[in-house]
């Protein structure tokens, strides 16, 4: 990967407008993350992740944050954590990331 590729990848990660519009169906989430659809639905039933359903019988769709949660949980399960422990650890990681970005946003606003 070249420096330009890394820079382009970083720009996509920082494109909050794009990320806020990123919503995909459960099949695509399964393909992207390698987590079976049945497992994704189970995690949703347990309240670990949340889909965006538009009506009864509609396809489950997931936003960027929930896709990120699925990836983190899968990594933690692969590392040997139980589902409950992985869910708790994932929530802590998400909270830490959010705090860091809030601090960055605050600093950015103070510089303007």
UniProtKB/TrEMBL annotation:
Q: Does the keyword section mention Hydrolase?
A: no
Q: Please give one Gene Ontology molecular function term for this protein.
A: DNA-binding transcription factor activity
Q: Which SUPFAM superfamilies match?
A: Putative DNA-binding domain (SSF46955)
Q: Which UniProt keywords apply?
A: DNA-binding, Repressor, Transcription, Transcription regulation
CDD domains the UniProt entry points to: HTH_GlnR-like (cd01105)
The highest taxon in the source lineage is Bacteria
Which PROSITE patterns does the protein's record reference?
HTH_MERR_2
Which residues does the UniProt record annotate as the domain HTH merR-type? 26-92
Q: Which PANTHER family match?
A: MERR-FAMILY TRANSCRIPTIONAL REGULATOR, REDOX-CYCLING DRUG-SENSING TRANSCRIPTIONAL ACTIVATOR SOXR
The name under which this protein is listed is Putative transcriptional regulator
- The record lists the organism as Desulfosporosinus orientis (strain ATCC 19365 / DSM 765 / NCIMB 8382 / VKM B-1628 / Singapore I)
């Amino acid at each position: 990967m070249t420096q330009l590729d890394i820079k382009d990848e970083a720009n996509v990660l920082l494109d909050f407008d794009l990320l806020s519009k990123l919503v995909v169906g459960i099949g695509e989430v399964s393909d992207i993350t390698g987590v079976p659809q049945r497992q994704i639905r189970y995690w949703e039933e347990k309240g670990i992740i949340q889909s965006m359903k538009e009506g009864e019988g509609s396809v489950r769709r997931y936003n960027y944050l929930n896709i990120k949660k699925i990836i983190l949980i899968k990594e933690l399960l692969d590392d040997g954590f139980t589902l409950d422990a992985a869910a708790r650890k994932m929530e802590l990681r998400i909270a830490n990331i959010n705090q860091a970005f809030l601090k960055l946003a605050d600093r950015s606003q103070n510089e303007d």
